[in-house]
Structure formats: structure tokens, C-alpha cells
Amino acid sequence: MSERAVTAMALGAGLGAWLALPVPPWIAGTVVVGTYFARRPWLLVVGVILLAGGLSEAARAGLGGVEPGVLDGEVTLVADPERYGEDLRVEVRSGGRRLEGWARGPAADRLEDRLAGDRVELRGLVEPIGSPDEWRLSRHLAGRIEVTTVRSWSPGAWP
Question: What DSSP line would sit under 49-76, residue for residue?
Fold first, then answer.
């Protein structure tokens, strides 16, 4: 593959990610695999654009759809909790979505020693973030949860 083709592929990946094309992964994968048989570098560039666009669209789609309400169940900690004065901030995954969690008082005390990967049984109020800033977008945070109760926890899987 020439340097020109590699440069075109890199630019195509960036373009596809920026455009966030709603392309099913199997279509992009078929184009990429087809380049092996066709031996056409430009076809690989097209496949990379489609693949990057489809994956970017899937990532952005995961940021929406959080309904306000009560979450009462098990979540997985995505990051270690961090103290901010009396408040505790933690990122959790629930139902395939990441939420920014805030806890205070006894709930914060029960969460403070937990680690990323631990599963925690909790109760809290969920709300959408609204228009997320760049930092929240980079963390794939779809909503917020105000943790009111932490009941139990179990360690995460070894890997």
C-alpha cells in the first residue's frame, strides 16, 4: 500500500468519524473484507470511512435516551470514586449507558472505598444531562444519577 493510500485512509477515518454516518457494521465490514479480494486500495479507504462513520454514530447514539426517573438496581462502577469536599463523584454503567453519579452523606461513605469494575446495588434519581460539554462527551456520559442509597456491592470480574 502506498503512502498516498495510507494518508487517504487516515483522512477517511477522520472524515467518517466526524460525519457519523449511520452505516450498519456488516456493510462496512463487507467492503473492508472485499478489498482483500479486489486488491483496490481506494476500496479500503471507502470501507474505513464507512466503518469509522458507523462506529461514531453508534457511540453518539449511546448518549441519548435517558429517561428521568428512579434507578433501583445493580450498576457497575466505570471509574474509581472521587471526593469533592463532602460530595463523591462516580461514573457508573447501567443498562448499557454511562451515568455521572453524585452521592452525599452515608451513600458517599459506602461508595468511597469501591473500585472501578465493582458492582453496586443502589437507588438514585436519574436525569438526562441535557447538552453535554466536551468532557462529558469524551467520557460517553448519557445522564446523571443522584445516589440516595447504597445497599450492597460485589467485586468486579477479575479481568
Answer: HHHHHHHHHHHHHTTS-PPSEEEEEEEE
Three cell numbers, residue 68: 428521568
What 3-state DSSP class applies to 38? helix
Q: Pairing mode, if any, of strands 69-77 and 82-84?
A: unpaired
Residue 90 confidence class, pLDDT cut points 50, 70, 90? very high
Count Cβ atoms within 10 A of the Cβ of residue 130 and give its class: 0-12 exposed, 13-18 middle, 19 or more buried.
Answer: exposed
C-alpha cell at 82: 472521587
Q: Over the Cα atoms of the chain, what is R_g? A: 20
Q: What is the Cα–Cα distance from 37 to 33, expressed in whole angstroms?
A: 7
Residue 64 pLDDT > 80: no
